[in-house]
Amino acid sequence: MISLDRLGIFIAIVDAGSLTAAAAVLGQSKAVVSFNLKQLEAELGVSLLTRSTRSLALTDVGRRFYEDCQRVLSEAHGAIETARQGQQGLRGTLRLTTTVEYGSRTVIPALIAFAAAHPQLQIQHSSSSSHEDLISGRYDLAIRMGSLNDSSYRAALIEPYAIWPVASPAYLASLPARDIASLPDLQRARWLAHSRLASPLRWEVQTPDGAAAFAAQDDAAIHSDSASALLGFALGGCGVALLPQWLVEADVRAGRLRRLLPEVVFPQQGVYAVYPNTQHIAEKVRAFIDFLRAFVGTPA
């Protein structure tokens, strides 16, 4: 029977890019790492890696086996953790990634309370505007915004939210009509767009007269991969941005921004907890998802 440790060594070799680097990561000698790789290939009866004096490369079989190993180890470690936690409470490490904005507003306060409730669990939190790959990044889960299209992961809705088109009084004052009073006006506006969205300026919206297709007349004047950056550009009078209600409502109340055409409703978005699509869900992941949903007040 092939050991899980041997699979872990193989994954470490691929991730590190060499036997020497993998040995350093694992705290083992290069000879031990090389022996385990050779034994694994012998037990499988296939070559997983091609070797040269300078590099290692996965064979076609090795590439598929690497992906399978990641899934198998994730499920095995999750099962082991769940068995242990049944008697000892949550232990180990919870690794998660969030956007900067929602992370600082909601997830970090929730993690403070969650960590206090589970003092033997270590937390590793990462903030990023990009969508990190959960498997290669070794993340247990990600908190993601908007609409999900990647079916290779599982997802649990944390809470829904509205998106509002907003602009500063200074930008509106610069317009010939000094206002945006209709959907065509909004389509002709100077737009600020989120670069991570496939079509940030095309939406199906609801108006008092029914459903309508919204499309900006011109390409965005400014693109950014950060909602907080788009908020800054909007506050600076650079144009119209479509942003989460929870991010802009304080500025709208204070008069620093104005919500445009409140009678036009853009599609509702969601905050999702996303995690690898494995048969076994680690108890720490399930526990934090339940905790976060309760923290924001979403019914189970």
UniProtKB/TrEMBL annotation:
GO molecular function terms attached to this record: DNA-binding transcription factor activity; sequence-specific DNA binding
Keywords: DNA-binding, Transcription, Transcription regulation
SUPFAM superfamilies: Periplasmic binding protein-like II, Winged helix' DNA-binding domain
One Pfam family, short name: HTH_1
Family annotation (InterPro entries): LysR-type_TF_proteobact-type, LysR_HTH_N, LysR_subst-bd, WH-like_DNA-bd_sf, WH_DNA-bd_sf
HTH lysR-type domain segment(s): 2-59
GO BP terms in the entry: DNA-templated transcription
Family as reported in the entry's similarity comment: Belongs to the LysR transcriptional regulatory family.
UniProt protein name: LysR family transcriptional regulator
